[in-house]
Amino acid sequence: MEIKGIIKKIGAVKQVSDKFKTRDVILTVEDKFPQHLLIQCSQEKVLLFDNLSVGSQVIAHINLRGKEWTNAQGEVKYFNTLECWRLEVLSNINESTPTLSNEVSDGLPF
């Protein structure tokens, strides 16, 4: 599954345990009503967003994960996670883009 969007927020890497780390990223998907989706990366995939910044446009390849959890009162709750496993960068605002000038310098003062 793919999600094309613009990076709204890149969270810090969280070391959950000695062997497990995660990073949350918010992608804004442009639609009639923009959607802000929480994408999660884990383990070595937390590095996917290291060289990107807010405003970059990407395609996140994700797996949809679901969990069932029962609390102490016996209520069953369900949680969904969008787990990113691959990233395609469409535009990165960290990359310098050359600028063109309409002015040509011919050495004349006017």
Molecular structure report:
The protein has a five-stranded mixed β-barrel with strand order 1-3-4-6-5. The chain is globular and about 50 Å long. The N and C termini lie far apart (58 Å). By secondary structure, it is an all-beta fold. The protein has no helices and six strands.
Question: Approximately how much beta-strand content do the residues carry?
Answer: over 45%
Secondary-structure element string: EEEEEE
Question: What characterizes the major β-sheet?
Answer: 5 strands, mixed, barrel
The whole-number mean of residue pLDDT values reads 87
Helix content estimate:
under 10%
Q: Keyphrases for this structure?
A:
mainly beta, 6 strands, 110 residues, 0% helix
Topology of helices and strands:
Layout: E1 2-10, E2 14-17, E3 20-29, E4 35-42, E5 57-70, E6 76-91
Describe, in short, the structure shown.
By secondary structure, the protein is mainly beta. The chain is built from no helices and 6 strands.
